[in-house]
Amino acid sequence: MEFGFSEEQLLFRDTIYKYAKNEIVPLCEEADLKSEFSFEIWKKLGQMGLLGLPFPEEYGGQGADVVTCCLAGEALGHAGVDSGHLLALGAHTYLCTDTLYKHGNEAQRKKYIPKLASGEWIGCMGLTEPGAGSDAASLQTTAVKKGDRWILNGSKTFITNAPVANVCVVYATVDKSKKHAGITAFIVEKDFKGFSTGKPFHKMGVRASTTSEVFFEDCEVPEENVLGNIGEGFMYAHQTLEWDRSALLAPFVGGMQFMIEQCARYASERVQFEKPIKSFQAIQHKLADMKVVLEAARLAVYRVASLKDAGYPINHLQASIAKAFVGDWGFKVTSEAVQIFGGYGYIHDYPVERMLRDAKLAQIGGGTSEVQRLIISRLLAL
Amino acid sequence: MNYEFNDIQKSIKENFKKFCENEIKPHAALLDIGDEKSVEILKKNIKKLGDLGYLGMIHEEEYGGTNQDLINFAIAGEEVAKACAATFLSAGASCGLCGMPIRLFGSKKQKEKYLPGIISGDIIGSFGLTEPQAGSDAVAIATTAKKKGDKWILNGTKTFITNAPIADVCLVMAYNDKEAGPANGVTAFLVDKGTPGFSTGKPFEKLGYRGSPTSEVFLEDCEVGEDAVLGEVGKGFIQAMQTLEFGRIGMATVSLGVAMACMEEAVKYSAERKAFGKPINRYQEISFKLADMMILTDLSRLLIYKAAWAKQTNNPEAAILASCAKLFASEAATQISSWALQIHGGYGYIKEFPVERLYRDAKLGEIGEGTSEIQRILIARDLLQKYGS
Predict the structure, then answer these.
(1) Residues A1, B4: C-beta atoms closer than 8 Å
(2) Which of A293, A352, B182, B252 has its CA 20 to 30 A from that of A27?
(3) What is the pTM of this model?
(4) Quick check: B383 and A372 CB within 8 A?
């Protein structure tokens, strides 16, 4: 066992941290306040190669391993980049582009990956439906073959990036009677006939990432846009969970470090009863709890990443532990951070207000905390 | 970065698991009675662990140890603790709290005198820092050491000393120069059982860890020679603090062991116990508690391994990571033991089921080797030094 990072990895992390702090963070608060996705931030992320990290260089990516992807996410979170843009990055890179790369044929890879990896295009993934959240296999969107086209009908919801996306990896069933074995993945471009997106939702947190419904009304998808094999879509969607439970959680780990630094600074400056509030043990204890949760969260997330890099198939127990812990305990300590800031923590002028709203998502997105516990308890051989 | 066990670690896990389940666990309930017979079993257990090589894992080869990575020691320790927390505690106080400072600061002569016996289990050691008025605030100890010719005269009282009633040697921290303050005025002495003026009190009746005897230690004009001084005169407090970093990893490990035992019992019981026509593990009130046990034990273990790795590699964060591991694992264990008892219902409240003992044992994790409160103070102090304005 070895818990250190290489010199190269640390250098990479520090570079991203500094870049984000100087170039991106100054734009984040306003974007969050306005609930606006910033194309300027997106462009800056693309310029640093952060929108195609794990893909081979021949497709315009950086060829990074999963641990390095996590380090990038952690560095961005640590710098103070808002979770909205980081979620947009995560959904784009890990839920859309990676699925396209992993299961796409050469023509599909060549057509889509370079555009997505550079950030010229934005990607999204369409799995969740109004009636199919945690129980994803019960999705109702259908795909019917008609000549050399597939006709899609149905609707998706809570689709991150949908309002700004150029391409969407959509999961639809070709045969409901087969349940999950009927689910197939399709590559649907924004301009395809019968494809449309709803009005962006007003969300509690991650507000700079846009989220909406997606509608398929006799949406026509050419045969060459079937992704992978018919009936294997559920498996592909399932594979994105590895990312949901590693690289997509890494920004929250970095965010906790950012939060600790913010709290330590505020507690040193804020004077009450004639002394800085850091001298009160009630404040110190909250800080300590944040640090313990941060250390445990970091270990849980990098374990999933490191074992994925070592070539192991996803360990669902470890992945669910990471997801449930970062979600539940992360939310708890973020709430304590707001408490340290008192009234100032409740207004937008300080970042902890946004962070608490953002942290709530980690308990819901990518499989709720309850679903994680369901998975864990099943794996306990009950 | 690598989260996998190497082959040695895999075999340690397997061997210790098997050994402890067969040799240690069956006696855990008897040990818990805490009578004369328990002491005999405990001594036998320690000897067995010596034979197995456990007590020497953190010691050098020339004294009979195997000088292994601290992660390996933690892997083995979890299995010992899971089988019997009291045995873990006494073994750890001997080979760790007493043996480790001898390894780190002792003279060749002292090492030769004590370490082979500590490693084999023939000598039992103890660590005397805490006093009636000096627990978390360890600098407040009142025991004194006065130089008289080539002798040192020790006076004072120690309390809550694990192994004291059965120990052959006690490492005693005393002020030789109060003016010089804790960093330069405290000295550690190796005091043998039978030294005139050295005596121990009646074993305490404790909530848990009843199989591991604990008592006061009295030093009444206790006279020891120059050769009893461990390392440099005046450096005893710093030695003690360094030792406690190991001790914190140990306390985290025993907490994890207790928590694992609780989880195992709860998983087993909830599969067998039926209510309203089905096993109670079919209810999410139960199964989600089990899932939380899994989450907390798993992360405790990772924190322990990381703290051990940090200590082993002299990482500057080692002390803080040890505090994090200890704080998290011990609070997890008390929570888990409470859930495990609850899952057992009335049966958890009686001695027929092991969770009754485990619940009592778990609590010590939040107190021994620095309370949870002290860990939080240490962690927060570090953060405020780094990031506070």
Answers:
(1) yes
(2) A293
(3) 0.96
(4) no
* Substitution target from B136, B373, B384, B386 for chain A, most A beta carbons within 10 A: B384
Each of the 382 residues of chain A gets a pLDDT tens digit; together they read 999 999 999 999 999 999 999 999 999 999 999 999 999 999 999 999 999 999 999 999 999 999 999 999 999 999 999 999 999 999 999 999 999 999 999 999 999 999 999 999 999 999 999 999 888 889 999 999 999 999 999 999 999 999 999 999 999 999 999 999 999 999 999 999 999 999 999 999 999 999 999 999 999 999 999 999 999 999 999 988 888 888 999 999 999 999 999 999 999 999 999 999 999 999 999 999 999 999 999 999 999 999 999 999 889 999 999 999 999 999 999 999 999 999 999 999 999 999 999 999 999 998 899 999 999 999 986 4
Give strand pairing partners of A219: A152
Q: How many residues does chain A have?
A: 382
Nearest CB partner across the interface for A295, out of B5, B303, B375: B303
Establish whether B369 is a catalytic residue. yes
A199 token code pair: 């009005």
Q: How many domains does chain B have?
A: 3
Question: How far apart are the C-alpha atoms of A225 and A51, rounded to whole Å?
Answer: 22
Task: Round to whole Å and give the CA distance between B63 and B123.
Answer: 13
CB contact, 8 Å: B287 with chain A? Answer: yes
The CATH number for B323's domain is 1.20.140.10
Q: Partners of A195 in the beta sheet?
A: A216
Among the partner residues A5, A281, A295, nearest to B1 by beta-carbon distance: A5
- Measured CA to CA, the distance from residue B76 to residue B19 in angstroms comes to 10
> Is B290 in contact with A310 (Cβ distance < 8 A)?
no
**B residues 204-233 lying closer than 8 A (beta carbon) to A:** none
Strands B214-225 and B169-175: unpaired
Residue written as tokens 């609780």? B262
Same domain? For B49 and B76 the reply is yes
* AA identity, residue A264: A
Query: In whole angstroms, what is the distance from residue B57 CA to residue B100 CA?
Result: 11
Nearest to A373 among B291, B327, B387 (CB): B291
Instruction: Give me the domain span that covers residue A341.
Output: 245-379
- The burial class, CB within 10 Å (0-12 / 13-18 / 19+), for A34 is exposed
A:319-338 residues touching chain B, CB 8 A cutoff: 321, 324-325
Say whether residue A340 is in contact with chain B using an 8 A CB cutoff.
no
Q: Which residues of B touch A306 (CB under 8 A)?
A: 1-3
Residue A255 lies in a domain: yes
Among A237, A260, A284, residue at a domain's last position:
A237
Pairing state between β A167-173 and A211-222: unpaired
Do residue B221 and residue B272 come from a single domain? no
Q: What is the ipTM of this complex?
A: 0.94
User: Are residue A102 and residue A193 in the same domain, yes or no?
Assistant: no
* Residues 9-48 in B contacting A (C-alpha not used; CB under 8 Å): 9
Main-chain phi, psi angles of A101, to 5 degrees: -70, -45
Chains A–B, number of C-beta pairs less than 8 Å apart: 147
The answer to whether residue B389 is domain-embedded is no
Contact B379 A287 (CB under 8 A): yes
Report yes or no: A311 at the B interface, CB cutoff 8 Å: no
| Sequence-distant (≥ 6) Cβ neighbours of residue A174 within 8 angstroms | A142, A143, A144, A145, A182, A183, A184, A230, A231
Question: For A65, which residue in chain B has the nearest alpha carbon?
Answer: B1
Name the active-site residue from B4, B331, B369, B373.
B369
Pull the structure tokens for residue A154: 């149905």
In terms of domains, do B315 and B362 share one?
A: yes
Query: How far is residue A370 from each of residues A119, A324, A362, measured CA to CA in Å?
Result: 34, 8, 12
